[in-house]
Amino acid sequence: MNYNFSSKKDEYKSTLTENILPFWLNNCLDGEYGGYMTALDRKGVIIDTDKSIWVHGRFSWVLGSAYADVEKRQEWLDAAGSGLEFLDKYGFDNDGRMYFRVARDGRPVIKRIRYFFSELFAVSAMAAWCRASGDNSRIKPARELLVKVISFRSNPDILIPKFDPVVRPAKGMAVPMILLNTVQELRRADPGNTPEYNRMIDGFINEIRGYLNYDHKAVLEQTGPEGELQDHFEGRLLTPGHAIEAAWFILAEARERKDKKLTELGCTILDWMWEWGWDKKYGGIIYFRDVLNKPASEYWHDMKFWWPQNEAAIATLMAWNTTEDDKYLEWHIRLMDWMEKLFPDREYGEWFGYFHRDGRLSTDLKGNMYKGPFHVPRMYYQLWEVLEKAGY
Questions:
Q1: What is the helix (H) or strand (E) element at residue 222, kind and residue range?
Q2: What digits encode the pLDDT tens for the residues 141-190?
Q3: Its pTM surpasses 0.70
Q4: Is the model's pLDDT at 70 over the cut of 80?
Q5: How far apart are alpha carbons 91 and 111 in whole angstroms?
Q6: Helix (H, G, I), strand (E, B) or coil at 331
Q7: Distance between CA atoms of 194 and 188, rounded to whole angstroms?
Q8: Are the C-beta atoms of 279 and 285 separated by less than 8 Å?
Q9: What pLDDT sits at residue 157?
Q10: How far is CA 193 from the centre of its chain?
Q11: Within 13 Å and on the Cβ side, how many CA atoms surround 355?
Q12: 65 three-class SS
């Protein structure tokens, strides 16, 4: 298959370093209060000054990882530190839990008591900072925060269930998935505790196995306590992009350990969810599907958001690199060609985020409390890293 890996590696790096990161660094840094304002219009003009706490962890991780692995640019390290300092000052409530959204000056706006994703992205950011700066002082607080988050899972008084646990006991795949990746990042910064982290990772991967439904060849977003399919809107929900993200976390672990069984698991998830997610008519990964092929309930079910495409691009290249099966390279090239026609903004930089199924642009904003400097730069960073480690 005609694919210039060395040229693509250079392209992924230059897109990250000369397009994506400069768009955010030139527009989102808050010189007065610190941290990032990521609600931006197409040109990078700030349209809302509230700050997303989980985006602070995410962008700080991106910048720290880029500094540690791609290039030593002082502005990246400085900006990563600014995000962490903002989290230290304003990210935590008195109970040790983190907010989801705060005002520009750090006053709390939203605290989501059902979730702990802000905390986990903060752990990853601290890990990346340690790798980038050489200062390991954040390892201990990162480990302590991770232990605290894991303890939340078994305490319903702290982590209030989304569904009534008597009427509809349920569990979600997102939790072990993000925990898996968080521990992977902490392990990179703290290799002396690798055996402990590996045991944790094994446990989270085993949890993810429980969401695989072999009858329908699908990865469920939510199941009953024993992994059973629940015939309700939420129980039938498939999120191909989310499951494919789990696939590449597992494939990354397979590469780390040279584990064929993990490779098989990651590829199984990717194979199943590519079949469910790839839009055979218009291209791209669809947001939601119903595992019983009933009508999807979410109004954006067939839209093409930026992040599922990012996850699929990483997963397909990792799967090819691990297995050398050209099927995955063909999927990767097909997806990248489709994405390149829609998402990059050739005039002002970065990516649009929201398209209708047929490729019509829904909104031209570049950032809000969800879309920010994470999925797109992480994709280019991961694609570059796969090819860099492969020796291209």
A1: strand 222-223
A2: 999 999 999 998 878 677 778 888 899 999 999 999 999 999 999 999 99
A3: yes
A4: yes
A5: 10
A6: helix
A7: 9
A8: yes
A9: 75
A10: 24
A11: 22
A12: helix
Check pLDDT > 80 for residue 1.
no
What backbone torsions phi and psi does residue 232 show, to the nearest 5 degrees? -135, 170
How far is Cα 102 from Cα 124, in angstroms, rounded to an integer? 20
Output the average pLDDT for the chain.
Answer: 96
Residue 61 · residue 77 · CB < 8 Å: no
Closest listed residue to residue 356, CA positions, set 280, 276, 310, 287: 287
User: DSSP per residue over 83-135, as a string?
Assistant: HHHHHHHHSB-TTSPBPSEE-TTS-EEE--TT--HHHHHHHHHHHHHHHHHS-
Identify the three-state secondary structure at position 49. Answer: coil
Rg (CA), the chain: 20
Cα dihedral sign for 214, 252, 146, 101?
negative
Distances (CA, A) of 389 to 69, 103, 265, 386: 11, 41, 22, 5
Q: What's the confidence (pLDDT) of residue 161?
A: 80
Q: Which token pair is 289? A: 């599907």
Question: Could you give the 3-state DSSP secondary structure of residue 73?
Answer: coil
CB-based contact 245:270 (threshold 8 Å): no
- Burial state string for 259-286 with b = 16 or more CB within 10 A and e = fewer than 16: eeebbebbbbbbebbbebbbeeeebbbb
Calpha distance 254→75 (Å, rounded):
33
> 231: buried, middle or exposed (CB in 10 Å: 19+, 13-18, 0-12)?
exposed
Phi and psi, residue 172, nearest 5°? -120, 145
Measure the CA angle with vertex 313, ends 355 and 204; round to 5°.
Answer: 110
CATH number attached to the domain at 5-389: 1.50.10.10
pLDDT higher than 80, residue 240: yes
Angle between helices 240-257 and 260-277 (to 10 degrees): 160
The DSSP annotation for 224-285 comes to -TTS---SSTTTTEE-HHHHHHHHHHHHHHHHHHT-HHHHHHHHHHHHHHHHHHB-TTT-SB
Q: Where are the domains of the chain?
A: 5-389
pLDDT single digits (tens) 281-290: 999 999 999 9
For residues 120 and 138, give the distance between their C-alpha atoms in angstroms, rounded to a whole number.
14
Amino acid identity, position 274? W
Taking the CA of residue 28 as centre, how many other CA atoms within 13 Å lie in the half-sphere pointing to its CB?
34
How many CB atoms are located within 10 Å of the residue 158 CB?
A: 15
